């Protein structure tokens, strides 16, 4: 590889930085010897730890947490949405559950286009037409039946209690509700729950969700059938039909979870298991890491112009593939082998100019967007069973509509499809035909619940919300631990950059890059600046095994589990025991 001047400059800086590659100042990760649960809402984390302490395994805890977050984290926790679960059992077997929403049977490719052929504003995000058939309950029940050990009633009991008795709203809960109040106010059923006499809740108020408690109790008693073949489906279909939607009873009856192998790849000796299509997440993380593996990233240093430009170029190429080539595996032939191959990474590296910024317009054209209001949680138990779950309503509170009588918020996941090729979605992604709408199809996702292992043992459990940024957030948490030697909390908290091919712009969080670095990058032709939407960058949740950072793990100085919830998450907690 030809070494540009920038590389040599970075080299000098790296030498000067010497043996202290991690620099960020963050609180220490939370330590636990027997188990760790990290979620975006502290009450849900406690639910998970209580399940582990009572003898449940990580999958049991993941199921109980999934139901609990539907109560205490309504912005993204859900029964009316969908998601993914990556499981690595202590014996090293891995699996992946896809319980993402599916398009209703009556869905059509052009269902969001008006007579002029252009997208009808809000149709794919704010109306009952935006709702995909929910998958979360089916997903949790399959996980519990196949990989859990505890009875359904036991795992639902904490969620039922939190819904029926209510929970006291703290600062983080209020901040999260504040983002939805305006939209929630427009739906009488939602307003009746999430507003107090039409006004926003305040800190110290108790949020009781009686209808949701009733729905959870029905699921506890009747299992997934209570949701998909019983009164809950009836109420959601009734609300949909009364409000211009297309959900039908058959959509619920025919819903099926898909179990498949995770996408796998290696990065500097670590085995990665992550989400396969219908998520783009695992594939694109692998593609970017494969490209970056060919460069001395650790040596070049965190936040240097050289590291940043290599990351940006790898992201640029990978997001072209994400946005043009990928879709639901039942409908599209996804180039999984190619995108995860080291040879393809070689080819991409050969196309990266050592001196000048790449130009997105020169790469194949396509693209659609995604919402940041998803949630991720990571769990590990005393035996080393590890679970990573990312699930979502898509936008914050989904459609912000509740089917009357259910207490269940409904997703707007249909917006993750290509509404019209080339037209950016809610979050600026421009997508193509592979992700076109079709009945029973799942929209392409970026959710990336990921588990790393080494020498047959779990090493890291990681994931994040963040729409199209989920991929680069998860990627940077991995790089910060593996390449930059940060401890887990630092790795998650460190300011981030993001590039998604289109728009051709390097987004950064405030202070992610120094003024000097910005000058160097600008000089090379990069359009780089603070993301105007930087407050929405996702809140990662992770666990490291055997040490708080790589040095401690490699020295064998640490034991147990180290958990970290993103400092950007104001209601979350890592709780170990
Ligand atoms: N709705 C966010 C995602 O699935 O990536």
From TrEMBL:
An example molecular function term from Gene Ontology annotations: leukotriene C4 gamma-glutamyl transferase activity
Signal peptide as annotated in the record: 1-24
Keyword 4Fe-4S in annotation: no
Entry comment on modification after translation: Cleaved by autocatalysis into a large and a small subunit.
Keywords, comma-separated and alphabetical: Acyltransferase, Glutathione biosynthesis, Hydrolase, Signal, Transferase, Zymogen
Xref: InterPro entries: GGT_bact, GGT_CS, GGT_lsub, GGT_peptidase, GGT_ssub_C, Ntn_hydrolases_N
PANTHER family, alphabetized: GLUTATHIONE HYDROLASE, GLUTATHIONE HYDROLASE PROENZYME
NCBIfam families: g_glut_trans
Protein's name in the database: Glutathione hydrolase proenzyme
